[in-house]
Amino acid sequence: MPRGHALGVTMQLPELDKVSESKKELLDRLDVFMGGKVAEELVYGADRVTTGASSDIQGATRIAHMMVTRAGMSDVIGNIDLSSDYSRLSSQTKQRIEDEVRRMIDESYDRAKKLLTDNRDKLDRLAWALVEYETLDKSEMEAVVRGEKLPKRMLKADPDVPVKLPDALAGPFGIPPLGGTTGSPGGSPPSLEGGGDGPSRPYPAGSP
């Protein structure tokens, strides 16, 4: 969920201390980077994709470029170091590098799109759980994706509590509370517990 200037952050912690990564691991990281933009396209449509995926695109490009120019992980380029003196490379060689980087990212995009399309229900469960709890660790995320109940825990976000900004940032008229129905600032948001007029939670949750 949003933190500061970030619209959402996914942290990946290694299970062990590592100084190198395999080609498969790097390709998996590309798929993770592409997953954010693909998710926006699936949920909102290609014409409503935002700039939120820009950092993911930068990260994917950086990894793919390293794989091609430094790690010898491109069959087209081969086992050549092309990063140490990149500025002196010919325009033809640079174009071949760019073509390989683009191919890797495009293939990663296709894999991510197929995965999320085939598992759209799990994507929606995870999205709703993040809206309700804001942060999820690995075990909680896996439980939500499987459709299981979360352990009892306090909700991170209380839609009935108004936002409090520092006095230096608050306007003269204050800040209205979060949530609320259309035309009713500060009202109660649609229920996620089921029943009533609001949408029901798309996954079974424990009692917070």
Features:
2 domains, mainly alpha, 2 strands, two-stranded antiparallel sheet, Methane Monooxygenase Hydroxylase, Chain G, domain 1, about 210 residues
Structural summary, described in words:
By secondary structure, the protein is mostly helical. It has two domains: 23-118, Methane Monooxygenase Hydroxylase, Chain G, domain 1, CATH 1.20.58.760; 122-185, no CATH class. The chain has helices at 23-44, 54-69, 91-118, 120-133, 138-145, and strands at residues 180-181, 184-185. It has a two-stranded antiparallel sheet. Helix 1 (23-44) crosses helix 3.
How much of the sequence lies in strands comes to: under 5%
H-E string: HHHHHEE
Distance between the termini: 19 Å
Q: Structural class of the helices, strands and pairings?
A: mainly alpha
What is the number of domains? 2
> Which CATH architecture of the largest domain is right?
Up-down Bundle
